[in-house]
Design brief:
Layout: H1 4-25, E1 34-35, E2 40-45, E3 48-54, E4 56-59, E5 62-65, H2 71-87, H3 100-116, H4 122-139, H5 150-161, H6 166-185, H7 204-214, H8 221-230, H9 233-245, H10 249-254, E6 260-261, E7 266-268, E8 279-281, H11 284-295, E9 319-320, E10 324-325, E11 335-336, E12 340-341, H12 342-353, H13 365-374, H14 380-387, H15 394-398, H16 404-419
Antiparallel strand pairs: 1-2, 2-3, 4-5, 6-7, 7-8, 9-12, 10-11
């Protein structure tokens, strides 16, 4: 049996032979691979030896060198698998990698199923579609998901910020995270994606500064009186609903007579966006405006709109959800058309006529007015019911109903703010 000194000598001899073989076959200084005596090119990475092609093959019992020693093919093999080998990941099988096209199509297919089941709106589907379109545009449809890193998400955030303010930026970031969360929970991605420290919603201080810069989204009583006096009957009734019950532009466009009881002066109207219950006591002025608008409403073009409270002179609704269209059934070919919103357009024209338009002000500002003023009633629970806001508190779990007297008190509080100093009220 050989002693230790003999074994060390043999080891040094083998090492010297290996070095001389590599030096002999190395195509250029700094070539990343070394030659193995078996005829393979090799490299030790993180304590493990990987093989990348051959510099020689055995023929007739002898090891013969290949043309150009096979170093070009070996280098190409190394370049293909280098990132995975250095990261300790399993090597990819060509054509079997998950791409952005794969995950986006799967995500949209799932959301389309929810849309068809009525669990999400066309508007929500359109927002998800915009998100996947942005991912494809920024990263490319064939980009491998495993290659994405924190620096990529930092670049994506900068791209979003070019066209979005702080609030919308936060919403888009949340939807992007939703896409990758879906990928992980559905098994398309093996582990949660690391977004890095920069890919997050803007902080509260950023939102506060932005809000201070853009100013309050608010109208004062004298401005509202001018609108009510100038507006045509249907738009006037919608303005009253925004001030009295916190309805938005799309709410008004979808409002049906079954949601109103003009004899008792009540509105029961679950929010179309969330399905959350909403109930409000209507002012006499609101009831009168609604009666006038309904009396002047044209006959609908489509019988399905027969009970819509508001219809345009063209006999169609003021608002309508966007429509999905495509020449193909594939989810990546689906397009979401524009949303019809004549309420916002008519209100903008009214503001322009009165020289009241400012950036950030629109029909939806009336919801801000109601929430701001109604908060002074000190009954936020009742205000939330009028607004259709979800209450996540434990008390809401046990609360079965709210007395109508509380809703009447909220309506009266806003009414006093609007008409308290206006003799005779607005007409």
């Amino acid at each position: 049996m050989a002693d230790n000194s003999t074994l060390r000598a043999r080891s040094r001899k083998r090492l010297a032979k290996s070095k001389s073989l590599t030096e002999q076959l190395q195509p250029y200084p700094g070539f990343p691979l070394s030659a193995h005596a078996s005829g393979a090119w090799q490299k030790k990475i993180r304590g493990k030896t990987y093989y990348y092609g051959k510099w020689g093959v055995v023929r007739n019992g002898k090891l013969e060198r290949l043309p150009d020693d096979g170093w070009k093919a070996a280098l190409a093999d190394y370049e293909q698998h280098r990132e995975a080998d250095h990261a300790g990941r399993a090597r990819r099988i060509p054509g079997d990698e998950l791409t952005f096209r794969d995950i986006c199509n799967s995500f949209l297919t799932a959301k389309k199923q929810l849309l068809d089941a009525g669990e999400i709106t066309v508007r929500s589907f359109g927002e998800y579609r915009e998100t996947t379109d942005r991912l494809i545009r920024v990263f490319g449809k064939d980009r491998i998901i495993d290659d994405i890193n924190a620096e990529d998400f930092q670049y994506l955030r900068a791209d979003i910020q070019k066209t979005c303010g702080p609030v919308r930026l936060g919403n888009v970031i949340s939807r992007v995270r939703t896409v990758f969360k879906y990928g992980f929970e559905s098994g398309l991605i093996d582990k949660p994606v690391r977004f890095g420290p920069m890919f997050k919603r803007p902080g509260k201080s950023v939102l506060r500064k932005h809000r201070a810069k853009t100013g309050e989204r608010m109208f004062e009583p004298d401005e509202l009186w001018a609108m009510l006096k100038k507006a045509q009957p249907q738009l006037r009734a919608m303005i009253y609903l925004g001030l009295n019950a916190g309805l938005g532009n799309h709410d008004c466009g979808l409002l049906r007579e079954q949601n109103l009881n003009l004899k008792t002066g009540w509105l029961n109207y679950p929010r179309s966006k969330t399905g959350i219950a909403r109930r409000a006591h209507l002012w006499p002025e609101t009831v009168a405006a609604l009666r006038e608008a309904i009396a002047q409403r044209p006959e609908p073009k489509d019988s399905a709109h027969a009970d819509r409270v508001f219809l345009l002179p063209t006999r169609v609704p003021w608002t309508a959800d966007a429509k999905i269209f495509s020449d193909s059934a594939a989810e990546d070919k689906l397009k979401v058309g524009p949303r019809v919103d004549e309420v916002t357009k008519a209100f903008r024209r009214l503001l322009d006529e009165l020289n009241l338009h400012k950036h950030g002000l629109g029909f939806y500002t009336l919801r801000h007015v109601f929430e701001t003023v109604a908060g002074g009633s000190t009954d936020q629970v009742a205000v939330n019911l009028v607004m259709g806001h979800a209450d996540q508190s434990m008390a809401d779990t046990y609360r079965e109903r709210i007395d109508d007297d509380r809703l009447v008190a909220v309506a009266d509080h806003v009414h006093r703010w609007l008409f308290g100093s206006k003799k005779g009220g607005a007409k």
